[in-house]
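Example 3.2
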Amino acid sequence: MRVVAVGGGTGLSTLLRGLKREVGETIKELTAIVTVADSGGSTGRIRKIYNIPAPGDIRNCIVALSDSEEIMRELFQFRFKGEGLEGHAFGNLFLTAMTEITGSFLEAVKITSRILRTKGEIIPSTVTDVQLVARFSDGEVVEGEERITEYGKEKGVRIEDIWIEPRDAQAPIDAIGSIETADIILFGPGSLFTSIIPNLLIEGIRSAVKRSSALKVFIVNAMTQPGETDGFTAYDHYRAFLRFSGLEKVDVVVVNTRMPSSSLLNRYLEQGQEPVVPDVGRIAREGPSVYAEDLIGEQENFVRHDPDRLTDLILRIADEILSGI
């Protein structure tokens, strides 16, 4: 089957690490469509200098799908120290250099993917240098992915509207083609407003998803995110995804039901994060098939979806639903 995964950040790269094991087996083609609206850290500084799409999430996805030697993966994630280069990831600088040499961010991503021998294609949702903009419940308009999250945390207000500038940013033709020919499209896991939805704010991406006959699966985050989804239940995530993405429906919603260990939960609570309540009945009443299961791991003291558990579930969903179509 042909699989398209849409998102960004840690959530998308975690998902891709599990899916890549099936490439050449149950997965014929795997494509990641990745947000380029990140404005923080190394990525943000590079964007200001070179006016290119954000390379950070692209880099993480390339590494996640890499089939190269461990040393190459470590090299692309290596962060420099010292004045001037401090905090910059080697992979970000490499992608920037390749963009300058080739004159094309898309070509830079393709070349870098070949170097790391990725088991799948990585495509930015746009090659335009876009900025994410949000209007909050207090009326304030904030520009920049990093500033949006920080403002939400600081003021305790909610996002009422979100868009990209420029609004007419174009989607790469390869991204549109992958969506239109997909058998299954996965949204998430990841930051709802700053990793998943930004891709669908690109008109070409949103329209292609609407046209596609693929099975559409929304994967709800395991934990709430301060400044974005404070107090959100699984149903709240689902409704917000539909509202802000502009999609009328999804076919399947995936929800984690496992609670983190007490020690880890306490650390997250101190940071203002809490487990997403799996109110699956409210979702199911609106039509989607709901798969609620134990899906998280606690590696490296973080609560994240386990790549293998999530992949196994996605394969089961495809088998149960697609085989009956």
